[in-house]
Amino acid sequence: MTGKTHLIAGVTMASTIAHYTNYEPLALIISGAVGSLLPDICHGGSKIGRRFPLLSTIINTLFGHRTFTHSLLFLFIIAFVMNRFVPVEALTVGLLAGMISHLILDAFTRRGIRFFYPLKLTVRFPLTIKTGSAIENLIFTGLTIIFFYFLIHIVWVY
Ligand SMILES: [Zn+2]
Question: Where are the membrane-spanning stretches (predicted)?
Answer without folding.
Answer: 68-86, 92-113, 134-156
